[in-house]
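Figure 3 (text version): structure tokens given as input.
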């Protein structure tokens, strides 16, 4: 019996591997999908629960992961990869203008410059 590194087993068959999926990649995809569902399905019970538990009065894009569950921490590791691909449409005015991606460059909150006070940030 010969020992082979897991990475080599994950190579496609054409490259000498067995074609297994990388567990790291599968895990990352799972948590990215959880983050996507959390941010885009705001009316779901699970999304509201996670938002109330971990975000409190902060926007999800600026929440820290200290003291959070394993699932929430792993979701936050994919947050940076996912957030720049989420674009929002202006509809009911319930979004927070500074934290959502409107211009394909990321949230206005992270672009340097002067900002309004917290009370002036919400669009209604």
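Below: residues designed for each position.
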């Amino acid at each position: 019996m010969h020992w082979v590194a897991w990475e080599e087993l994950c190579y496609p068959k054409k490259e000498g591997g067995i074609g297994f999926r990388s567990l790291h990649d599968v895990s990352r995809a799972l948590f990215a999908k959880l983050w996507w569902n959390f941010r885009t399905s705001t009316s779901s019970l699970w999304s509201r629960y996670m938002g109330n538990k971990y975000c409190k009065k902060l926007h999800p894009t600026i929440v820290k992961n200290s003291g959070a569950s394993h699932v929430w921490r792993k979701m936050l590791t994919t947050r940076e990869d996912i957030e720049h691909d989420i674009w929002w449409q202006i509809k009911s005015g319930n979004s927070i203008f500074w934290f959502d991606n409107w211009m394909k460059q990321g949230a206005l909150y992270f672009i340097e410059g002067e900002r309004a006070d917290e009370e002036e940030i919400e669009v209604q």
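The chain has four helices and no strands.
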